[in-house]
Design goal:
alpha/beta; four-stranded parallel sheet; two-stranded parallel sheet; 8 helices; globular
Length: about 220
C-alpha cells in the first residue's frame, strides 16, 4: 500500500494506534489502565519505525486520544473494561481510571516522539483530536461558562499536554474538584516536556450547543 501511494506521489500519514487495543492486553492489564502498556507500545513503534522508515515520514501516535475523556472511550480508546460492563453503549465507568489511562498514553506518546526525533530525524510526529465544536445555547453567562468548561476538558486538554508538554492549569483544578489523583512515576513530566508533537491534527464531525440547564 505504501509503495502504491508513493508511486503516485501520495504521502502516507499513518495512525499508529487507531482503536485496536489487542484484547489480550485488556485481559492482562485492563488496557491502558496498566502502565505496562507504555513499554509495549514503544516496542511496537520501534518495529514499525525501523521497518517503514524509508516509506513513511508522517505519524500520529493515537487516534482521537481525547475520546478517553468520555465514558464511551473507556474501552474504545483505552481498552479498559470494568467489571460489570455488558454493552459498549452502557459501560461501567470509572472517570479516575480513564484519566490514569490517558496519562499512560501521554507518556507513551512522549517516549515515542523522543525516540523518533533521536533515531529518525526525517520523521514528523503528530497528535490527533476528535474536536467537537461547541457553542453556548444562549447569551446567558451560565451557558457561556458551561461551554468554556466543556471545551477545556473535551477538546483542549489532551492537545495541551501533547503540544505544550505539560498538564494545563484547568485540568489540575478539574482533577481536584472531581477527586481524581493521577499516579505518576519519577520522570513522567520530563517525558511529556521532551516528547511534544511536531504537528496537530483533528477530526470534525459536528457542532453542539451547550446549556447549563440540561433540559434546554
Amino acid at each position: 500500500l505504501f509503495d502504491e501511494c508513493l508511486k503516485y506521489n501520495i504521502e502516507p500519514l499513518v495512525t499508529i494506534s487507531h482503536y485496536e487495543m489487542p484484547f489480550e492486553l485488556t485481559k492482562r492489564y485492563n488496557g491502558w489502565a496498566g502502565r505496562e502498556c507504555i513499554d509495549l507500545f514503544v516496542r511496537f513503534c520501534q518495529v514499525i519505525f525501523d521497518r517503514y522508515q524509508k516509506k513513511v515520514k508522517y505519524w500520529l501516535t493515537f487516534n482521537e486520544i481525547n475520546a478517553g475523556t468520555m465514558p464511551m472511550g473507556s474501552f474504545l480508546s483505552l481498552g479498559i473494561l470494568n467489571e460489570g460492563t455488558e454493552y459498549f453503549s452502557n459501560q461501567v465507568d470509572s472517570e479516575a481510571l480513564r484519566y490514569q489511562g490517558l496519562h499512560h498514553q501521554f507518556v507513551a506518546s512522549g517516549k515515542v516522539v523522543a525516540l523518533a526525533h533521536e533515531k529518525y530525524p526525517q520523521f514528523k510526529l503528530g497528535n490527533m483530536i476528535c474536536f467537537i465544536t461547541m457553542y453556548q445555547f444562549t447569551c446567558n453567562p451560565d451557558d457561556i461558562l458551561e461551554t468554556q468548561n466543556s471545551m477545556k476538558m473535551l477538546n483542549w486538554f489532551c492537545s495541551d499536554v501533547q503540544v505544550r508538554g505539560e498538564y494545563p492549569y484547568y485540568s489540575k483544578r478539574y482533577f481536584e474538584e472531581h477527586q481524581i489523583q493521577i499516579k505518576m512515576e519519577e520522570g513522567d513530566l520530563e517525558i511529556l516536556k521532551k516528547g511534544t508533537v511536531d504537528f496537530y491534527t483533528f477530526s470534525y464531525y459536528m457542532s453542539n450547543c451547550i446549556a447549563k440547564n440540561p433540559e434546554e
